[in-house]
Amino acid sequence: MAKYSVVGKRVPRIDALNKVTGTAVYSGDVILPDMLYGKVLRNPHTHAIIQRLDVTKAQALEGVKAVITASDVPGYQSRSPLLLAEMPHLAQEKVTYAGQPVAVVAATSIEIAEKAVDLIEVEYEELPPILDVLESMKPETPPIYPDLYTNFIASPPSDEDSTPSNIAYHMVINRGDLEAGFKEADLILENTFRTQPVHHGYLEPFAAVASVDMGGKVIVWTQSQGVFTARQMIAAFLDLPASRVNLVPVEIGGAFGGKSFLALAPLCALLALKTGRPVRMEMSRDEVIKAARPAPGSVTTIKMGVTKEGYITAASISLIYDAGGFPEMSHTMFARGNTLSHYKIPNLKIEAFDVLTNKVPVTYYRAPGTPQNHFAVESQMDLIARVLDMDPLQLRIQNIAVEGDTAPSGEILPKVGYKETLERMAEYLKEKGSLQGDDQGRGVACGFWHGATVTFGAYVHINIDGSVTLVVGVTDVSGSRTSIAQIVAEEFGIPMESVSVVVGDTDTAPWASPSVGSQTIYSLSQAVYRACQDAKEQLRHLAAARFEVEASGFEFANGRLIFQGDAEKSIAIGSLARYSISFRGAGPVVGRGSIGGLPPAPSVAVHAADVEIDKETGKVKVLSYAVAQDVGLAVNPLSVEGQIQGAVTQGIGWALMEGYQFDQGKVQNDTLLDYRMPTATDVPMIDALLVEVGSDSGIYGIRHVGEPPIVGALAAIANAIQSATGVRIKELPMTPEAILNGLKEQNKS
Amino acid sequence: MKIKVNGQDYEITVEPGRTLLDILRYELRLTGTKEGCGTGSCGSCTVLLDGEAVNSCLVFAIEVEGKEITTIEGLSQQGKLHPLQQAFIDEGAVQCGFCTPGVILTAKAFLDSNPHPTELEIRQAIAGNLCRCTGYDKIVRAIMSATNS
Ligand code: FES
Ligand code: FES
After folding, report:
1. Domain spanning A27-128+206-282: CATH 3.90.1170.50
2. Engineering a disulfide at A628: which of A145, A246, A425, A509 sits with its beta carbon 3.0 to 4.6 angstroms away?
3. Ligand whose nearest atom lies closest to the CA of B106
4. How far apart are CA A161 and CA A171, in angstroms?
5. Chain A within 8 Å of B124 (Cβ-Cβ)?
């Protein structure tokens, strides 16, 4: 976009230099003098009561400095009921999944810590595990938590009749007249789709380092998507005021939603507090897979009715998410805004459940719960197009929601570019032409993401050399530092090199919500923009006083203020900053910006996958892949493309190879050899087609970017597989074995 | 034992069972080498051992006596980035950066033996290095562009 000189340009990331030279500091790289090493004892059973827990032998081992169990946690004693987020760190009376932490040790070496963990004696009374969501939902199934009520976790609802349940959360939306809608339909299809839990697969395992200063302040270095929320959780666990805890941001080696969960930091902080020495903890990869929250598996049943012209008349969908052994995170919450939201559907019912089982609990992963529901919805759309013999993109175009339509949540759609995005893909595929080879097929699918609502602050300091320092409190998981530096450069008319971005610790930075929900650039950019406007206004007044003219007449260009184009009345921002801090000056120029929850700027990404199937082995080769996405405005197209390509690759992994394998609730594939993720030979180059239908609420028209491009991938691949083979697979992952089975079935009939 | 890392000689005492990765990260504090799995499945611990790319989590420290090791910290010369490092920055091949040191060193060893590879050869060469952020697209392009510079 020619409108801007820095915003919209492909710029290298400002953090890249440290990363290519190995100098970037991640949690595990923090080394402090006199450090102890912490290790977690994890429970081996899926479901059991802790009968006896004896740590005396461990405590007696030379080199052991502390052993902690739930009874030593200050936060567990002081409050009840506990916040959900505080509970999972150490098991109390009961364990509800294999891998749950039971105790934690600090010792002078990692070897001693490991030995001490082995010396802790625990006696368990095993309980029958509940492993299947459908089983778990039944009223006759005993509740895993006797005091857990649907939507009223840990405190009974006022309704006398309600009974404890394994359904942690439940949500229903009804619109129109479902029955009448289905009556109008010429074709009704109903299908059930299943997915397995998958892991975010961030390359960096969890780590934490904590120390306590002389004043009793606890300082924690850990990879968290939200340092302020992490501070609150750690303070609650330690039963300290938040001001006694400081979270220091570090580089994060991939997160994708998985690092809002604090796997180690509260334990590490408590060990540091108990021992008075710095403590480091790291998780091994198998601990990460077994115990650091994956995304939930799901069972989704969808029924959809359409006219013979291909207009949707009614749809009902039931989404069941396997929450695992702890009611930590509700995916139902996201189902409300992200299910069947991108189509016009006059009559519908959406119902969603988070259901507890004795498996590893889950957390949010890139567009929480939404790839799962789109696997069902967008596979279903494809099946309908096949029956009606319609072009699958055309079917979507004619049902797509537009500005002014009411979403299932009741929200009136603001300006959106869903249709433009579909049309862009149609144009791209027309140019590309159809596939010619045997056993090749193309699949398309939409991926919708509504976006979350969060809040941020930002400070802008004008330095005396004319450079600008931007201070924020949000950790960078997606290139956000670079994009906000572009915004500052744009606003002051200075080069990128003159902007430095500081991610402060929780003692110095302004508040930041966690970096989640594709919100960071979208919302943070507003706070940064406002901080820039605040500083610019101050500079205008300083310049106005100097030249004795109206402040409003000043424009910013090349790091200077110019009064109505008059070169005589022009001054560098650095000069103004210098005068402002002299003893006669008005004081330093500090811009302050803050943003409350913005209205979301939803977007759709349209996927097109071309695959080839080896009918002998069942192996799927992804020949080419393209995504068209409405990004509103790409602040840094290089970064936006990278987000899209990374998300698609995660989606391809989810579709074809990834998935937890359980034996009686215990994770079996806990290495990266067995939990296989895509390598460079599993994926092609990925074309990112950026559509820019600006949003009404984002600054410069920015929209959410990071999550939409994973959402449609699962169905796009499934649809492509059917195009190539005629086989429809309704359960992920679509392994070679599943495809061979499908081909066998096909030959039979 | 004696060990030579990035052209510098070190004398260290090593407990048996310690890996080269442990020594690099915790004894020599060269923390640019990362541990993603500890079992040889991710490539984030890749270093060059006499010019060959190896997973340092699978190498016992005592095996490297007398050999030359290059880690990511030793790749730039006299403050000048290696062409691969520059290409990774320019092409946007770095996101979280956790895989980056390992991928760059794997690519370096590969390009030293095959200076004009095809896209497929590049993909095969880095197939032992997982990256979860980039989808490999920009990494492959960066390696290609480094071959041209
Ligand atoms: S840490 Fe060595 S291969 Fe993963
Ligand atoms: S850049 Fe994050 S794993 Fe490669």
Report:
1. yes
2. A425
3. 1
4. 19
5. yes
| Residue closest by Cα to atom 3 of ligand 1 | B40
Comparing CB atoms, the residue among B25, B81, B138 nearest residue A645 is: B138
Judge whether A458 and A521 are in contact, CB under 8 Å. no
For residue A610, report the phi and psi dihedrals to the nearest 5 degrees.
Answer: -110, 125
A449-487 residue pLDDT tens: 988 778 999 999 999 999 999 999 998 888 899 999 999
Nearest C-alpha of chain B: how many angstroms from A705?
14
Q: Is the CB of B92 under 6 A from ligand 2?
A: no
Contact A683 B89 (CB under 8 A): no
SS3 A625: strand
ipTM field:
0.98
Give just the sign of the alpha carbon dihedral A675, A680, A686, A688: positive
Task: Please tell me whether residue A423 adopts helix, strand or coil conformation.
Answer: helix
Checking if the pLDDT of A66 tops 60, the result is: yes
Mean pLDDT of A646-675: 97
The string of pLDDT tens digits covering residues A138-185 is 999 999 998 888 987 667 777 767 888 999 999 999 999 999 999 999
In chain A, where are the structural domains located? 27-128+206-282, 298-451+600-748, 453-595
Task: Please state the pTM of the whole predicted model.
Answer: 0.96
A441–chain B nearest CA distance, Å = 22
Structural domains in chain B, sorted by start:
2-72 (3.10.20.30), 83-147 (1.10.150.120)
B-contacting residues of A 636-665, CB under 8 Å?
Answer: 638-639, 641-642, 645-650
Residue B99 in contact with ligand 2 by CB distance below 6 A: yes
User: By the 8 A CB rule, do A479 and A10 touch?
Assistant: no
Nearest beta carbon to residue B98 from set A16, A253, A677: A253
Q: Residue A649's closest CA among A146, A265, A361, A254?
A: A254
Residue with the larger pLDDT of the pair A491 and A600 = A491
Determine the distance in angstroms separating the CA of B108 from the nearest CA of chain A, rounded to an integer.
13
User: Closest partner residue to A686 among B41, B132, B137, by Cβ?
Assistant: B137
Contact across the interface for B140 and A680, Cβ inside 8 Å? yes
Instruction: Please say whether the beta carbons of A475 and A226 come within 8 A.
Output: yes
Q: Which ligand is nearest to the CA of B21?
A: 1
- What pLDDT does A288 receive? 97
Look at residue A1 in the predicted model and tell me its pLDDT: 43
Q: Which CATH number fits domain A298-451+600-748: 3.10.150.10, 3.30.360.10, 3.30.365.10, 3.40.190.170?
A: 3.30.365.10
Q: What is the pLDDT of residue A154?
A: 67
For residue B79, name the pLDDT band (cuts at 50, 70, 90): confident
Task: Give chain B positions within 8 Å (CB) of A639.
Answer: 92
Shortest CA distance from B88: residue in chain A: A20
- Residue among A642, A671, A672 whose CB faces B134 most closely: A642
Please tell me the distance from the alpha carbon of residue A527 to that of residue A533, in angstroms, as a whole number. Answer: 10
C-beta of residue A359 within 8 angstroms of C-beta of residue A97: yes
CATH topology agreement for domains A298-451+600-748 and A453-595: yes
**B96 CB under 6 A from ligand 2?**
yes
Q: Give the CATH architecture of domain A453-595.
A: 2-Layer Sandwich (3.30)
Tell me, what's the pLDDT at A2? 55
Mean pLDDT across chain A: 94
Query: Phi first, then psi: what are they for A622, rounded to 5°?
Result: -85, 110
For chain B, the 3-state helix, strand and coil shares in percent, each to the nearest 5, are 40, 15, 45
B19 part of contact set with chain A, CB < 8 Å = no
